[in-house]
Amino acid sequence: MLHKILKNAQVVLAVAATAILFMSPLSSSAQDTKEYVVRAGTPIEVATTYEITSKDHPLGTIVDLKLLNPVQVKGEVVIPAGTIVKGKVTQCKKSKIFGNPGFIAIDANTITAADGTLVPISGVTFRNDGKSRLGWSLVGTVCCLFGFLIHGAQGVIPAGTQMSGNVMANTTITL
Between 3.40.710.10, 2.40.128.260, 3.50.50.60, 3.40.50.720, what CATH number should domain 33-94+103-128+159-174 receive? Predict the structure, then answer.
C-alpha cells in the first residue's frame, strides 16, 4: 500500500514539474511587455463611416468614425488603421421653413489604442452647413401661397469625409 502511494506521489510530482516548465514561458512573456509613448502632435487621419445629417442625428448623438492610417511608435503599431473613433454631434440644427438651412458639426476627442488606453486627440471636427433656399421660398410664396413651406437643405457630412487631427498629450501605451 505504501509503495502504491509513493508511486502515485511520483506521478503527481512529474505532472506538476511538467506544468511548471510549460507555464514558465507564459510568465516570461508577460514580462516582455514594452511601453511606447505616443507624442503630442502626432498626426492622425480620421474619416466618417456613413452619412451623417442634421435631420437624422440630433445634438449629442454618438457617431462612428475610423482611423485611416496606423499610429506607430518605434516601428510598432500602437493604434491600428481602421480603429473606430467615437465622435459626438456637438452642433445641430434641422432645416426649417422659409428656406432656412440646417447645419451639423461633429467632434472627436479620444481614440482607443491597442491596449485599451484612451488617447486624447484634437482638431478632428467635421462641419457642414446646408444651403439656404430663401430665394425659392420667396418666389414660391409670391407664386403660390404655400412657398414659405420650402425648407433649406439639411447639413450633411458624406460617408468617407476625411479630417486631420493630432494627438493632444503624450500618452503611454503598453504592448
Answer: 2.40.128.260
